[in-house]
Task: structure prediction
Amino acid sequence: MDDLELAGLTIKKATELGAQESDVFLVTTSKHSVEFADKGITSYRFSSEKIIGIRVIIDKRIGITSTNVESIRDVEKAVKEAIAIARASEPDARWVSLPSSLEPTPIEGAHDKRIQGLQPRDITDYVSTMIDAVHEESSGRAKVSTSKLEMGVARYTIANSYDSPISRLSSHILVNLEAVMEEADKRSTGSVVITKKRLDEVKFEEAGHEAASKAIKFVDAKPVETGVYNIVLTEKVFAEAIETMISGPISAEWVIEGRSPLADKLGKSIASNKLTIIDDPLMPWGYGSREFDDEGIPTRRIEVIKEGVLRSFIYDTYTARIHGRESTGNAHRTPSSRPRPRPNNLVCEPGDASLEEMIEEPRILVVYDTVGLWLSNPVSGQFNATVTHGILYDKGKEVERVKGVVLSADFWKMLRENLLLVGKNVDNLANYYAPAILVSNVHVSGK
Amino acid sequence: MSRSLGEPEVVDVLERIIDAGMKKGVDFIDIRYNLKEYELYYVENSVLKESTYRRTKGIGIRVLLGGSMGFTSTNKSSLEDLEKALDKAISIARAVNKVTSKIDLSKVPVVVDNVKSPYREDPFTIDKETKIELLMDANKQSLVSTEVKNRISRLAFERDYRVYLSSEGAKIVSEVVLSGFSHLSVARIGETMESHYDSKSKVAGYEFIESIDWNTFTREVSETAIKLAKARTPPSGRFTIVADPPLVGLLLHEAFGHASEADLVEADNSVLKNLLGKKVANERVNIVDEGVVENGYHVYYDDEGVKKGRTIIVENGVLKSYLHSRSTAKNMGGEPTGNSRAMDYSHIPIVRQTNLYMLPGDESLEELIRETKKGFFVSGRGSMGGEVHPGMGTFTFSAGPSYVIENGEIKELVRGVALSGLILEILNNVEGISKEFEIETSVFGGCGKHGQLARVGDGGPYIRVKNVNIGGR
Result:
């Protein structure tokens, strides 16, 4: 039985058992996951599974179950359990209905067929290429530390009690390569993170060279003096900041439920006019690009922040109905959870500044890597991150390499009052795309 | 013929695959069957937004062939499907043979056992209506003022059933049941918004949920959120801190526990490499990792069938052992410590902490505070977590509500405290350790490593540490 048929049968079963509405979120995955270090592959895992999530609604009472599927009996059991949960639940007075139709939007680059056909030998070759490149770049001085390569394909199938099931394929590649260097008592690392959908975009050899050169470069890094600095958040660091600090507050769920600091800011200026952020699920080969969201709603571009002004929140069907509007196609879910609005590809548009222009002034700390940025608080706007790889420049000249300092700032004040320059290059961390930015007045706690 | 895996048939089917693997010439094979049930109720602003039940089951097959390891997982349980999975694992082991150094496993006692965590009332058999009513009531109680803008209460239960079989003859069945409650409140005062979160979980049944007054619990979380929204952020700089047990737990887990994991040491990704037998902490500091601890998580055996007892990691400030799997122990000349754990059937076991904690000292909390002239009392309750870069030796974590200490007295509440430091400095800077002591676990989260989430327990005494880097503004 294929996934479309299984999804359709599940809906039929739910209706037979008394569900007034129901939907199915079925995910079939196959994935190669490899961990490796300098001595080679330390673990290689191939996994495949099919997981179904079933949501049923009875008199505005909602029940959700999920199970991995071996046979139709697993599904029948899960449907019965979902019905039992719904009957025991409290009604949600704000519930209106599931989407009345399921429809894809055509996009370019949803999945790379080559990933589906990969054999273990291909994967081991990619790993060897990265390890060799680290050794070559460093003339054997750097080693590969705990690293990971993951490549997989997933089929997502959506069905509901109003329309025929639809299905889409998606591929993903994750490289997390870390080189380590030890000399005398000094020790440093250099990491490269790549998240793409298409094999051609992953340059394994370049990744090895980059990780090694970073490890070599930062072997003398140390904390700088505590103080207030102008800093450059490089592309991936700013992309992570956008994910941590913006993806939640622009969700209509956060707005409706009183969690978002942006709740009363629609149409108002919340950032410098240099900042424009769109949600673009149609970007060719974008990491989060997809034909429809996790409720089967066609995806579309949404202008979230235009020249500093908050233009739109992002919606799934439930939140859109509460605000009396259409879903923006941003429903995300796992088989065991209800949909919630999340960005598809949140893209900060580039400016025109080069890194050289950003470091022209005195005392600029350029931040290449951090840990703990995700611990920042999107509700209060408190932004914190510990720098592991940074360089302090003075009027364009490198002064020292930096690690072990904590950045602290009011995130929205930083973007509103202290955003000086926006870089011209964009890089991504999963489905978050950003340029580098230069900001002023950031507290740096060092020595 | 295909047949479904119910628990009674599990062992029989898996043993046939082990035999098939040995006949195909593998040097070692182990198989894990895992069935997990997770029930979650989620109430936001007095509306039941989610009541969910998740059931995952499947089989992971690991083979060792000519010194290389291959692993596959599947949720299909027919003999035919499992034989296919076995062949895939063997083909992977052959493919990686040229791109890996030889793997071997330390010898361990072959165990046959059946263990179950203690509980009186199976939470999965309690009426859903009863659970929902308790959660709805507690959520309503958290609306203590109009300044509270958002309230999320969760109630969750987990059953983790595992069967481990190996070609050496091990056969271990284990079951752990975990129950817990969490609450988050967001308060807004003027333009300032702040949140506070707290949770309590225990390896226990529904009797644990019935033993606590959750209405008071959620009210207190809301009251703290309101106070935090009125509080200042701290200044940046280096200060002495008195850390509470949840923060000590976070600090040890992030700043030290990960660096003591032998797979990271082996991969040149730990600052504790080459430090066995050397001083890594103040001589008062003793750290252990223990499988079964009151109020912690329960790990009776790891996912390689090794009994998890108590591992002494630091004794009187000296590093005594890393945490090992069978392969890291063999490769590094240590003893397997029962720390090889997998998130579920579909993941390969890797070195993980279980309940990692600091042993108590002989001072009182009052004394620790009294002897602090200027600094902060820092709480881990309500923290958003932490992260470590074990290779660079850098760690960072967020703290919950914290207080200024001046001349030995607790003063003003502060919010948004972030702490950071270097692993090899922090435990050398410990100045005092209390006799008061707490450990906790969580059904809502755990430790993430290499994409795998593991339930852990952590905690310890209150400690005073000098020269800690605090980020504020």
Summary: The first strand of chain A starts at residue 21 and ends at 37. The longest helix of chain A spans residues 120-137. The radius of gyration of chain A is 24 Å. Residues 45 and 155 of chain A are 19 Å apart (CA to CA).
